[in-house]
Amino acid sequence: MPNVDTDMIIPKQFLKTTTRTGLATGLFHELKTNADGSPNPDFVLNRPEYAKASILIAGENFGCGSSREHAPWALLDQGITCVIAPSFADIFHNNCYKNAILPVRLPVDVCEKLAKAAGGSNHIFTVDLATQTVTTPDGETHKFDIDPGRKSNLMAGLDEIGASLNAAPEIDAFETGRRLAMPWLEPAR
After folding, report:
1. CA 108 to each of CA 28, 45, 113, 141: distance values in angstroms, whole numbers, following the listed order
2. Contact 85, 59 (CB under 8 A)
3. What backbone torsions phi and psi does residue 27 show, to the nearest 5 degrees?
4. Are residues 85 and 155 in the same domain?
5. 71 and 15 together in one domain
6. pTM for this structure?
């Protein structure tokens, strides 16, 4: 469905934690839970064949709404490491990268085709970040674009802090050069 907002991904009552674990219980709570609290057997992630899915195929404008970082945390806690959609809300899109989730943008018609293929008896897809491809169960391949820096960080398992620490020698050299060139900027000791 289009316009799945962050409150639908992880409702506000599950935001009482600052840890990244245990949030899968709240993931899509209103969709996956009946009014009496029992699991909704019709919800896709409650079906046994999708319970351990690592790829989520979504509609347009996925992750819209508030900027809660708990939304990608909940997806990751569920085991979802890739979301394929025609478009994402900007903050959610950026939060995915910060949390080692690959957001893949593909055209609406391709996402609809993938969703339909996922409903078949063979619903195993392959997302290859190195080649930037999504391969369907029947072998059809779809290319996607990704920023080279973000791709490199994901492939190396680096978040923004890790990427900064990798650049420590360059940062130190810049700071040394700046101190020499502009000593008046240094704090008084």
Report:
1. 22, 22, 9, 15
2. yes
3. -60, 125
4. no
5. yes
6. 0.87
